């Protein structure tokens, strides 16, 4: 048994007492391995007595699970209505230029900081009232 | 020692509240990390002896302490933004430390829970009915009736599910409540479980709210002896907006794709794992402890207008000068909320549009600012209050672009189960693009003589595309399974109706659409 399959077995066991445990299990896997890949789907299907199609259907439905790990740092930028009202679209050019190929910019729809946008998130750190200078700095330090 | 209060709400943290708190500690102050008052333009705000200073930076620390700071706003509780509110659900905002169970108890916490347990469950439901409380998630269904249905259902297991999947842009009241007053939500859930006979209560919230999740989990651990034997658990979503829809949320909670279920059966009868389930919004459940306190239901029913009873935590967002949380009884005109309380736009330019109720809410023109804040009043104007988020836009916004974004958002977030939403949203983006670029010419292939079945006319004018868009919106409105596809037409059609020049260009608005 490989390390990975053993670890996934442990994660499944840790959630065995929960009702409908698939999402909490997938969160743990995504957090630990940075992705939920095809190999993991097979292991999960076996461990939870579901078909691989069931697992893949769930994994591919949600934005938070990715099929491949991405080593780049991620900056999530909110581009929903309230942040658009505060001009986030005018910052995107500078943001993408600052990110280049080194940083991954991902769009998120709402961080709940809607009175003080444009807002962004890096890990568990939140950022508000961003302007071109602030967002560039934020991405360069990501 | 000087007692300094600084919020640990996510928005204050984003503004640098942690560093600020450390700086005050380094100066020998005692720092309490409290919930946020909801005056978000002042965050991070520093409170000393009831007086506020904000937005504070590290450079302000010395001046605040020696009394020479020019960022003072005076006594917070007397500030017009706070003094004009009627805070019931957010009564503790700014005053208590969120996860301190002592602070909660000292401010009237658990009173309702103690009282409820001396009552018959049916009597509890009667009081909820009498209060006139309606679901705060958007649909406005009477909470008492939902509870009664679950209470009367026969089943070995029943569930309470709190919908904290607050994905609407322009809303943050659920987040503020979970981060600022988690015990109130826990008390409300315990009362709901007692009233309907549920053994388990889930809070389903978003992965975008890590601070709220941490606070809720800590509060649940500490409150366990009080609410036992009720089992309570926080579940984290995975970035799907549609999971804010109750049946989709239930599927997600069960570990499935977050696809919408057809109703009936109602979740009240066949909900989580097919068992009777109360699905209520955070703000609905958080209003419960107040309602179930002695005389609370009558007080609640006295507030508000018509069939919209009680108070609503309104969220002022977007391009607004004084953004934040404003809890008030239903019945204020929209214009007063935006211009007087919110102070107009942050940029100082005229307000062009406001969107009420998140991405699925209609865009409202300043001409309609006398609209009174209430469920029926908004419905009559082809708008909705939703989760009571108000997003303000100044004149720089392109409403054609916003209408396109509404369709684009629906396409990105559609669960894919029903056709009007899944395909309609994609077609919606295309049609809006064609309106904005002057219609559709027949392409080279279509015009080839070999293509016998294609029409060889000059294509469609922009005005004709509007007919298509209207038709598509009708189909989505009446043919979609849930509010995502069903309400996306509201922002689209309202933008087209009030700001046609943003779609066609100033000179080319068709005569029948010009106002």
UniProtKB/TrEMBL annotation, chain A:
The keyword Transit peptide does not apply. InterPro entries: NADP_DH_HndA-like (IPR028431), NuoE-like (IPR002023), NuoE_N (IPR041921), Thioredoxin-like_sf (IPR036249). It holds the Pfam family 2Fe-2S_thioredx. Belongs to the complex I 24 kDa subunit family. It comes from Aurantiacibacter xanthus. This is NADH-quinone oxidoreductase subunit E. Keywords: 2Fe-2S, Iron, Iron-sulfur, Metal-binding. Its cofactor is [2Fe-2S] cluster. GO terms for molecular function: 2 iron, 2 sulfur cluster binding; metal ion binding; oxidoreductase activity.
Automatic annotation (TrEMBL), chain B:
One of its GO terms (molecular function) is NADH dehydrogenase (ubiquinone) activity. PROSITE patterns: COMPLEX1_51K_1, COMPLEX1_51K_2. The keyword Cell membrane does not apply. Keywords: 4Fe-4S, Iron, Iron-sulfur, Metal-binding. Residues 400-444 form the NADH-ubiquinone oxidoreductase 51kDa subunit iron-sulphur binding domain. Its cofactor is FMN. It comes from the Bacteria. It holds the Pfam family NADH_4Fe-4S. The keyword Iron-sulfur applies. InterPro entries: NADH-UbQ_OxRdtase_51kDa_CS, Nuo51_FMN-bd, Nuo51_FMN-bd_sf, Nuop51_4Fe4S-bd, Nuop51_4Fe4S-bd_sf. Belongs to the complex I 51 kDa subunit family. This is Formate dehydrogenase. It comes from Aurantiacibacter xanthus. The lineage of its organism: Bacteria, Pseudomonadati, Pseudomonadota, Alphaproteobacteria, Sphingomonadales.
């Amino acid at each position: 048994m490989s390390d990975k399959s053993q670890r996934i077995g442990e994660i499944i066991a840790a959630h065995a007492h929960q009702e409908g445990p698939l999402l909490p299990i997938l969160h743990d896997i995504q957090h630990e391995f940075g992705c939920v890949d095809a190999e993991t789907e097979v292991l999960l299907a076996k461990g939870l007595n579901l078909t691989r199609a069931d697992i893949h259907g769930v994994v591919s439905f949600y934005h938070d699970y990715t099929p491949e790990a991405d080593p780049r740092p991620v900056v999530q930028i909110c581009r929903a209505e309230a942040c658009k009202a505060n001009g986030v679209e005018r910052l995107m050019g500078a943001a993408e230029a600052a990110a280049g190929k080194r940083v991954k910019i991902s769009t998120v729809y709402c961080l709940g900081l809607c009175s003080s946008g444009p807002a962004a998130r890096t890990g568990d750190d939140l950022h508000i009232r961003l302007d071109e200078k602030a967002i560039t700095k934020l991405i360069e330090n990501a | 020692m000087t007692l300094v209060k600084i919020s640990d709400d996510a928005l204050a943290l984003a503004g640098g509240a942690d560093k600020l708190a450390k700086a005050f500690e380094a100066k020998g102050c005692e720092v309490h990390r409290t919930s946020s008052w909801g005056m978000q333009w002042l965050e991070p705000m520093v409170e000393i002896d009831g007086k506020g200073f904000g937005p504070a930076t590290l450079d302000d620390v010395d001046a605040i302490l020696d009394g020479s700071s020019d960022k003072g706003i005076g006594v917070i509780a007397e500030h017009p933004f706070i003094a004009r509110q009627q805070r019931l659900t957010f009564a503790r905002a700014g005053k208590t430390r969120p996860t301190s169970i002592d602070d909660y108890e000292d401010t009237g916490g658990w009173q309702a829970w103690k009282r409820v347990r001396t009552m018959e469950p049916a009597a509890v439901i009667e009081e909820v009915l009498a209060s006139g409380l309606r679901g705060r998630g958007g649909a406005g269904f009477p909470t008492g009736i939902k509870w009664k249905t679950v209470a009367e259902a026969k089943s070995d297991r029943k569930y309470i599910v709190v919908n904290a999947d607050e994905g609407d842009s322009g809303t943050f009241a659920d987040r503020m409540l979970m981060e600022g007053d988690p015990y109130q939500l826990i008390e409300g859930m315990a009362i709901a479980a007692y009233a309907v006979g549920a053994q388990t209560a889930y809070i389903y919230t978003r992965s975008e709210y890590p601070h709220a999740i941490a606070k809720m989990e800590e509060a649940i651990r500490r409150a366990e002896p009080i609410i036992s034997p009720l089992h309570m658990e926080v579940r984290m979503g995975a970035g799907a907006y549609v999971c804010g829809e109750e049946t989709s949320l239930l599927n997600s909670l069960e570990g499935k794709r977050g696809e919408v279920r057809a109703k009936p059966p109602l979740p009240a009868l066949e909900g989580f794992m097919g068992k009777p389930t109360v699905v209520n919004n955070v703000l609905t459940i958080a209003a419960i402890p107040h309602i179930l306190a002695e005389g609370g239901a009558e007080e609640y029913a006295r507030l508000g207008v018509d069939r919209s009873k009680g108070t609503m935590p309104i969220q002022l967002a977007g391009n607004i000068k004084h953004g934040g949380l404003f809890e008030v009884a239903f019945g204020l005109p929209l214009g007063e909320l935006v211009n007087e309380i919110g102070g107009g736009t942050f940029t100082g330019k005229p307000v062009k549009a406001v969107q009420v109720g998140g991405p699925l809410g209609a865009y409202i023109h300043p001409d309609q600012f006398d609209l009174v804040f209430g469920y029926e009043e908004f419905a009559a104007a082809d708008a909705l209050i939703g989760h009571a988020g108000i997003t303000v836009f100044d004149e720089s916004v392109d409403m054609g672009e916003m209408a396109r974004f509404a369709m684009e958002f629906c396409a990105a977030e559609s669960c894919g189960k029903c056709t009007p939403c899944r395909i309609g949203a994609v077609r919606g983006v295309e049609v809006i693009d064609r309106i904005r670029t002057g219609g559709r010419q027949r392409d080279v292939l279509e015009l080839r003589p070999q293509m016998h079945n294609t029409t060889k006319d000059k294509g469609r004018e922009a005005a004709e595309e509007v007919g298509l868009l209207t038709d598509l919106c009708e189909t989505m409105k009446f043919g979609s399974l849930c509010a995502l596809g069903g309400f996306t037409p509201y922002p689209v059609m309202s933008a087209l109706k009030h700001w046609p020049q943003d779609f066609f260009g100033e000179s080319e608005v068709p005569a029948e659409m010009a106002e």
